[in-house]
Amino acid sequence: MADSGASALDIGEADANWALIRDKVVEERFGPAVVPVPFLEDAAAYDLLSVLVRKPGRAPRLLGRARPLVPVGALGQLVQQGAEPAGCPREYSETRLVAGAPCRIELQLASVHKKVAFLALRPGQVALRPDLPWLRGLRSLYLLHEVFYGSGLVLAVTRGQAQRALRLPGPCPLAFCCLKFALGPRGLLGPQKPVGPALPARAAWLKLASLEPPAPPQGRSPLPRAPRRGAGGGGGVWTHKGPATPAPSLPPGKWPFASRRAQPAAPSRGDPDRLSMSLPLLD
């Protein structure tokens, strides 16, 4: 595994190597029905009860692929109103051919645990805030109800004699399970829908850093962009200070879609209990 002489591994390159091994690591450790967190840089955005949506648009789908998914914040931040940890040391290594040269990727976890949420959601009971800029045109969303965390994560990459490593000491989301819900035209959360085969086999993902900020209102200066984390100057291992949770909402000034005005929520129709369901309370 990474030694004290390993130089810093940039978070972007760490994500590129994580993409090579994440499916096998997560399936081996948590099972085939669990979805890997697509980017370590955005791992905190995939915390318990986070919401995922597909990027709206009418662009033609290439080779049958669905529109990419992006986290938009925790459910509690979006609505109008308001397992026990278990030690399990684990190491994983694999050699892949990258740019024509062998690359050894090693992953170490000091411990893993999961959290599961239980709550009752009746169709029409919960309405999203009408000011959310990505709400217009959405017909469904995904809610993370089970999240797997790793503590003491070390991702080391060795090419030739050079080794670099990334360390994330705090609890970091690594994988999750989610439920799909219908979304009404005014942001009303509807009944649960089948997730289908799109997760995880055919899912495409958007990285939060790739999202473009909206045009600033007239007479106001644009919001400053959050600085990107990177390797410090000099040697040593890049270290993320502090836990990766709780999950943040989108970074200041960043929105995944064009800002549009949504209509206010409308009352539900029919018996609100006829399609009620339960999710696995926060531990």
Automatic annotation (TrEMBL):
Pfam families: DUF4663. Residues 258-269 have a biased composition (Low complexity). Residues 211-283 are annotated as: Disordered. InterPro entries: DUF4663. Residues 245-254 have a biased composition (Pro residues). Transmembrane segments: none annotated. It comes from the Eukaryota. PANTHER family: GENE 5901-RELATED (PTHR36872). This is Chromosome 11 open reading frame 42. The lineage of its organism: Eukaryota, Metazoa, Chordata, Craniata, Vertebrata.
